[in-house]
Every structure is written in C-alpha cells, then in structure tokens.
Amino acid sequence: MTDLDAFIVGLPKAELHLHIEGSLEPELMFELARRNRVAIPFASVEAIRAAYAFSNLQDFLDIYYAGANVLRTEEDFRDLALAYFTRAAADGVAHAEIFFDPQTHTDRGIPFDVVMRGLLAGMADAEARFGLTSKLILCFLRHLDEDAAFATLAQAEKWFGQIAGVGLDSSEVGHPPAKFARVFAAAGAAGLKRVAHAGEEGPPAYIYEALDLLHIDRLDHGNRALEDAALVERLAREGMTLTVCPLSNLKLCVVKDLADHPIDRMLALGLAATINSDDPAYFGGYIAENYRAVAQARGLSRAALLRLARNSFTGSFLTEAEKAHHLASIDVYAATQG
Ligand code: ADE
Ligand code: ZN
C-alpha cells in the first residue's frame, strides 16, 4: 500500500452517495441467481464485468436494473448490504447514508417490507461487527410518475422511524425535479430529509428546481452547477453539500478523463464537495479508490483530502454531537499524520 493509500484508508470518512443495488458485485449476482433460480443473461462473472462499458447514464441503468432482478428475499438484501458495509469498513468508512430504490423491487412483486427488513438487518450487523453506523434514504425513480412515488411513500410510512430521507434518482434528462415537487413536500412534512440527483447529466436549471421546488438538504452530483457562476455562488453561500462521485463521472462519461475532474475546482470555489462511490460494483471502485484515483489524477493535497472527509460528516444527517465526534477524530488523525 502506498503512503497515499494508507492515508486515505486511515482517514475517518462518511459515504453519502451509495446506491445499495449498485454495490451488487458480479460474484454475488451469480450466487443469488443460483440460490433463487433466476436466469441472468451472462455465462460468467467475467462476462458480467465485460458488459460494464457505458457511454452514458442510461446505458448503465439498463444493466443495473437487470442485475437487481436476482434480489428476491430478505436474506438477499441483508447479504447485499453486509457485503457493501464490509468493503466500506475496510476503506475507513465510519458512517454511510445509503440509497435504495424500492420501486425496482416492488414492481417485480417483492414486498417493500422484505427490502426494508433485509437492509435493516445488514445495517445492524455492520454496526455490531464494524462499529459502522448507517442511515437509509429511499429514492424515487424519476422515470416513473409522481403517483407511483406517492404510492411508494405510502408503503414507507410505517417505516418512517427507520428512514432518514427521500432522494430522486434514475434517468435525469427529461425528468426534471419539478415533476416530484408535491411528493417531496409530503416527505418534508413527514419530517424526512430531502436529497436529489441533479446536474449529473441534466442542466443547471434542474439544480435550481431541486433547491427551490424540492427544498433539498443535500445535492447529489451537482457537477453541472459549474456552468452557472450565480448558482455556484448560491450553493457555496448556502453551505449545500455536494455528493460527488469521481469514478462514476468517469465511467458514465460525465468527465472524459479523471485529469479533467472538477473536484479541486469545486473546493476552490467554496463548495462543500464530498467524495463517494455511487455504484461501486459497476464503476470499478469503492470509496477509498475514488479518493485515491482523483487525488492522483488531480494532485490533491493532504489538506484537500482532510477537507473532503470533514465535509462528509458536516453534510451527513447525523446529530450535531455525532458530527462533532467524527470531526474530532479527523483532527486527531490529522495531528498524528503531521
Ligand atoms: N441510480 C444508480 N446510480 C445512479 C446515478 N449515478 N444517477 C442516477 N440514478 C442512479
Ligand atoms: Zn447516484
């Protein structure tokens, strides 16, 4: 392990942008297909990996939804979550706020409660085994309509005590945040936090909608904010956390090369950027690899890496006391790294 790798793995950090279905590794996909007697259109783990060449978000989503088809039982969701947390813990993640896409499962006849019970079991195991805490964020699929999102919110209601917030994901262009203004208002009225993917492929106008119509507490991706100086100034002034995903940006062609990645420009502009893995099984790396790859490509300083890790706790949905505890652990780490 290089000095940089060791520094990154040892750095206490939170992961704020992780789709649990996007952490389904080909090996587990194969195992679950066998266990559940589900046919998958791949002959081997290698064939699955070879299919992971995407030219845009939709290319990826088509494969991601097909892969999720092997997830059937509570045990499957528990195994999926625990596999992610095991990787995350090894990467030095102390806290994770994970997305799940219930509609991907309920539309296949898998009960909402099966998904919840499985994920919560994995989360409890992770806390017991690794001391890794986590929260759940329910994402609405934006390619579906708002009535479907309302139906999902109704199914979630009895679980509100176990769900930190709602999010918005899937195909961005053509599905602006405005389409979900009423369901986000209902979620907010129920006391849930609100986040949304915006500005990954969609224009800055979608980020304004996420802010003004969805009243988001955190912005997922947000790369295209950089096209609008007034928007950047506003995001910085409001202290809005951006959950940036470097390897995802590379694999989905949001950036041509990691050498062009704007992570350090975001920090220089005063944006509260964080580093996350998005769908690590599909994009070639978990959170430490995202830090490492972009640190190397952009020549990030240790100070920048510490700032990114601090931002991950400040932007989390932990209590102020919990945030202070994690920030203090970063201060101790920084002091020992001298
Ligand atoms: N679902 C899983 N990953 C996603 C991403 N990066 N953008 C939109 N929807 C997603
Ligand atoms: Zn995402």
Task: Please provide a written account of the structure.
This protein is α/β, with parallel strands linked by helices and 338 residues long. It has a single domain, classed as TIM Barrel (Alpha-Beta Barrel), CATH 3.20.20. Helices cover 51% and strands 14% of the residues. The chain is built from 17 helices and 8 strands. An 8-stranded parallel beta sheet has the order 1-2-3-4-5-6-7-8, sandwiched between helices. α1 crosses α15, α5 runs parallel beside α7 (112-130) and α16 (302-314) runs antiparallel to α17. 49% of the residues are buried. Bound molecules: adenine and zinc ion (ZN). Adenine (ADE) binds at residues 19, 22, 57, 64, 169-170, 197, 200, 248, 278-279.
- The CATH homologous superfamily is named Metal-dependent hydrolases
Q: First CA to last CA: what distance?
A: 19 Å
Q: Residue share in helices?
A: 40-55%
Tell me which CATH architecture applies here. Answer: Alpha-Beta Barrel
Rg on CA atoms, Å: 19 Å
What shape does the CA trace take?
Answer: globular
User: Which kinds of small molecule does this entry bind, naming each only once?
Assistant: adenine, zinc ion
Q: Would you state the CATH class? A: Alpha Beta
Q: Major β-sheet, in short?
A: 8 strands, parallel
> In terms of per-residue confidence, which ranges show pLDDT below 50 for 5 or more consecutive residues?
none
User: Structural class per helix/strand content?
Assistant: alpha/beta
Strand line-up across the major sheet: 1-2-3-4-5-6-7-8
DSSP summary, beta strand count: 8
Mean pLDDT: 98
